[in-house]
Amino acid sequence: MLDWLQFILAPQVINGLSIGVAVVLMALGLTIIFGLLDVINMAHGEFYALGAYLGYALIASGVSFWFALVFVPLLMVPIGYATERLLIRRVFHSKERHILTLLLTFGLAILLEDGLKLAFGANPLKPEQPISGASEIIGLYFPNYRLFLMAVGVLIIVAVWLTVYRTSLGAMVRAAAFDRHMAASLGVRVSHVYAGTFAFGVALAGISGVLLAPIYSVFPTMGKDFVLIAFSVVIIGGMGSIKGAVLAGLILTQIQAVSSLYISPVWTDPLLFGIMVLVLMVRPQGLFGRLGHG
Amino acid sequence: MAEHLLALRAAVMRRERVSHSTLHFFAYAFIALCLVFAAIAMATGDVFFFRLATEALIFGGLALAVDILLGYTGLLSLGQALFFGYGAYVSGLVLKEIEPSFWTAMGIVLVTATAFGAIAGIIAIRARGVYFALITFGLAQVVSKIVFNTRELGASDGIIGIPVIKTDFLLFQVDTGHAPSFFLLVLSIIVGLYFLVAYVMGTPFGRTLVAIRANESRVPFLGFHPWRYKLAAFILAANVAALSGALYPMLRGFVSPELMFFQVSGNAVIMVIIGGVGTLIGPLYGAAILTGLKSVIGTFTEHHLIVIGMLFVLSVIFFPKGLVGHARPRIERILAARGRES
Fold this sequence. Notes:
The complex is a heterodimer. Chain A is mostly helical. Chain A is 75% helix and 3% strand. Chain A has a two-stranded antiparallel sheet with strand order 1-2. In chain A, helix 2 crosses helix 9 and helix 9 runs parallel beside helix 11. Chain B has a single domain, classed as Orthogonal Bundle (ABC transporter involved in vitamin B12 uptake, BtuC). In chain B, strand 1 and strand 2 form a beta hairpin. The mean pLDDT of chain B is 86.
């Protein structure tokens, strides 16, 4: 029994955690964008891929991984800001904005994916692991990079939480999400908050791309599968809820990791989806409420 | 007061008749264009473009299904290819394993797609708005993954070697291997589906769907149960998609899990938006435009998706009503002017 816990369950749980942290990063971007702008960003997976490619290109041009890790999200911010200002803003006041913004970001996803293919080719590229070696924990060896990934991921998640709930910037975002007209009349420049929040969410996707590139390698469609899990996480956690995204992200990836001990990995996706459907049937609003609402 | 209401009703009905006949005008124009194309292609003895045009029509049927949900019920389906692929697989299996008969294949697809659509619908209809889009997206993604990994269904290869079939109609016979006659058969089926759906949308059932699209929470106060109507629309759309999909293996001789992938669903949505959402005939135009564009751009570069994506983004921003939606008021004015003259 103890052996089973140590050698079978524990590695799954810890590997699941490292994937979970990455999924949470993706889901955070999605859920913040949805919570404030009411926009389903179908291009989120492609922004993640873009981040991974930008990181790859930077490293290939000679800079270190650490520089890329900091610089890529900074590069993603103006890209996200411009996307919101030039594209999403144009259909934002339409009556059918849910559907139009979804379609718009879907078109952007097609553009980005093929653009990446054009720029970098369709074959997977594998960046080098910036941290080599492995460490011993409870008698097992784990790759150092995965442990690093978890630590950085947790740091970012905490930083996001602090920014949204403990800074005046975050208060502006929450105020705009709660009642944008009231926020505007109190002097919040709502349109800049919107664009800035979109850019922030996109930067989160970009940094997940850089972080995960050494584990999963980089290819144009890398965002597709990943974003489906992120969507399920956002739906289960509650669209726009940060707490929900973190909890649901960790729970879902644990279910995925542990269940793959018993069922073929082919069936873990249907399992996750089944959970999502069940949550939608019992609690359509997800586990927790929206951004700015309690 | 009553007189006033009657006059109003008459005016609305007159307006709708014009609007209807405008859409049918687009439908007749579409048929005429297809026949002109067929005549030219037949005269030049072409096969490639015949096959391509047949494929465009088949995917047009899928786009028609998306428009039933998006244009009339206000539900954006991002996974309609699920039913398209389902129809293709069932039809392929029936033709290969059971009986190489057109009618058996279409019949079995119709019956089982109704059941499949009902099950998927009960799951998906629970969700509203963007949740519906995501749940249909997820459903299609998951089922396509299962099919992709099921060896009994040919896994990633799909089903190959589906025989060419001969179909007996009362007066004549159609050979799916003969490009021109199969094109005409597909044209009549897809256009037939269009007229059927257009008729259904004109009945009280269709009007209730439009009411749901306009304001779902008010519909129960009028004594209607939105859930039932949405489910019925979902099943109708599933059937239209599955029947179109059933034609695919007859054209290409194989089916593959790619038919259920998001790309196919996404393309159908693009066709609907480019052609004109809520017009039913628009999606068929959209299918012809998209397929034509892909084939033309494809001769220059393999990166045709950049162009398609750009076109799509621009049309969502600047032409959200699509081709038919934008041309409609003009044709309507012409038809109305002619109506006044006669």
